[in-house]
Amino acid sequence: MSKPAQPAKSPLRWWDLGVGAVCIVMLIPGGVGVVSRRGDAANMQPFAALFPELGILAGFLVLYVVTIRPALRREHAGLPPAGRDWVALALLAIGLGAAVAMSPGFATLQAILYPMIWTITGGSGRPRAVPIGWSAALAAATGVGAYFAYARLGFSDAAWSAAMIAACSFAFAVFLGLWLTRVYSQSEQHRSLAERLRESQAEVAALSEASGAAAERERLSRELHDTLTQTLTGLVMLSEQAERALLAGDSERALERTVRVGATARVAVGEARALVATTQPLGEGELTPALERVAARLHADTGLEVECRFGPVHLDREQEVVLLRAAQEGLANARRHANATRVVLVLEERESGNASLPPRVVLRVEDNGVGPAAGPGRASASASASGTPGTPGTPGAREAGAGGFGLTGLADRARALGGEINFGPREGGGACLEVSLTGRQSPAVPADQRVRPRRAASARLVTPGSEGV
């Protein structure tokens, strides 16, 4: 999360500079200052005659430091004006009127007093009538003081001049106050938006980090299920077979199973190292040899007859990994839940029927086991393949046996690549798991080469067109 903005060390620095600048301007002889000069230095007011004006200016500074400055600090902190703040504003208006009556040059103080009034009384959420009313009071006090000053100086139109000064001052104060208030309000909105944006960015970063961690955990869960979990399950089955062989006195079979336990354990170690190193599960080889190794391992571990029918396909590396995982899942389910004696593993490329569209690459795992009891379950880019836990032979039982990362994990992988999964009973008995992905455009392949039968280990070779499972 972003750190909160640090408060300014001197929030009233600009007010102090403004008050100081106005006081300096008023001390400059001539012009708008309280020190008058009419012609030359000989006509300069004596220093002693300036004591009243200087005293009023000093009183203004004291009033600013003692009352106005704390009021401005409270406003900067977002606090409403206190009772003494209203008293301070009243003293400012009355004092300004008396000062202008003594010397019209004190009207210059309006340049700093009006912004103070609007800042203290025109905060966010307060009605505009409050600062406008206080501006009218200050303008009226200035006008009254100007009238007495002009009358004392012998102006014939003192009332008219004082009224014009008061009216112009009030109009300028309201215009400037409303404009500054609008600018301040917009700046506060922008500041608030910027703060919310920073908070949103920090939240997005935290969510992205959490999402990345969750995605990595999910990836590792799938990889563990598709590799180590299945290999360790094979180890359990092999050890149970070795134990039964020992109990039956079949030392030869027990030795053969023990050898297989060692080989499978070494495979598990290799898979664990691959996960730690985040290497490609296919290694440097292609998909077809990897599928043959998986099928050969299943045949060696269980004695299941595994037939491989592989045709030439054109896939990206990531797609090959998904099909490898699908084959591992299908073969593992056939071994654990289907009570099958024979499995057919098919990899083929199907034309889409449109020359502008790439072909579909299909991997199919069929077994002659008990098969799902319910109708086909379909998992595509928009649906999950997970079933409901049930009796052995149902999709739910296979998914439950997979620990929750089987067909659901395949569905998620296929969704990411725009593919789909079909799982259901096979015609003639057993089950069929089919994964379909969009392949890459490739040169035309003769029809007699699109499905090339192979066999894994001692699996029986079945040529295309011969009897199926």
From TrEMBL:
The chain crosses the membrane at residues 12-35, 47-66, 86-117, 129-150, 162-181. Signal peptide: none annotated. This is Signal transduction histidine kinase. The keyword Transferase applies. GO terms for cellular component: membrane. Residues 321-437 form the Histidine kinase/HSP90-like ATPase domain. Keywords: Kinase, Membrane, Transferase, Transmembrane, Transmembrane helix, Two-component regulatory system. GO terms for molecular function: phosphorelay sensor kinase activity; protein dimerization activity. It comes from Leucobacter luti. Pfam families: HATPase_c, HisKA_3. Residues 216-281 form the Signal transduction histidine kinase subgroup 3 dimerisation and phosphoacceptor domain. Residues 371-400 have a biased composition (Low complexity). Residues 368-405, 439-469 are annotated as: Disordered.
